[in-house]
Amino acid sequence: MDKEFIIAIDGPAGSGKSAFARKTSERLDFLHLDSGAFYRAVAWYLFQQNVTPEQDFLFSSALEHIQLSLENGQLFLNGQEVGQSIRTERISRLTSAFSVFPVIRDFVNQKVRAACVGKPVVVEGRDIGTVVFPDADLKFFLTAPVAVRAKRRYEQLLSQGESPQEEQILREMKKRDRQDSMRQTAPLKKAEDAIELDSSLLSLEEEVEQVVRLVAEKKGASSCR
Questions:
Q1: Is the Cβ–Cβ distance between 6 and 25 less than 8 Å?
Q2: Which of 33, 50, 103, 142 has its CA 20 to 30 A from that of 201?
Q3: 109, part of any domain
Q4: What's the CA gap between 50 and 52, in Å, rounded?
Q5: Is 222 within a domain?
Q6: What's the whole-model pTM score?
Q7: Number of C-alpha atoms within 13 angstroms, CB side, residue 139?
Q8: Once rounded to an integer, what is the mean pLDDT over residues 88-106?
Q9: What is each CA distance from 197 to 72, 92, 174, 177, in whole angstroms?
């Protein structure tokens, strides 16, 4: 498939969106775009510039100096690959704080839409099916109990060489859930036409198979028109 086809995957932190989106994109030979990485890159840049979430009057001018691009599936910030520098727990907390501001959400949404023009893409985030691509070809909402999600995050940080506290991760994830679902701009919620999947009940392969089947059905229906 060489024309635009958008698969939107939303869900809370730790629900398994990244693994689900990445595996799905591999199976379908689609581009994989993690909108959360865009937010993290913005937060990392602002942090490097000593801009804090309390200094929202500086956001607009700072954003003018940010260029985000996807090259071979890798995210680049001002020409440099961001890699794992945006995946620390500190950047996670800053991303949560910065991402509630409309000016930052609008900036990221513009970059995400531009990166997807004319391409078959699996896009993951928290408001992809509701705000960024409300007319996406397929929408999924991935979820799991918060304790399961916190455990996943804890193990991920351990694998990255950090020394997290499991109880603290759980507290912060509950806080993030509240922030995401209660923010005024683009709160986390399931789109009315999204298919909900509980990643604690399904294997990754089972999740991916559902998407592959539905894409085939949708392509078949389109070819018959």
A1: no
A2: 33
A3: yes
A4: 6
A5: no
A6: 0.90
A7: 21
A8: 92
A9: 29, 24, 20, 17
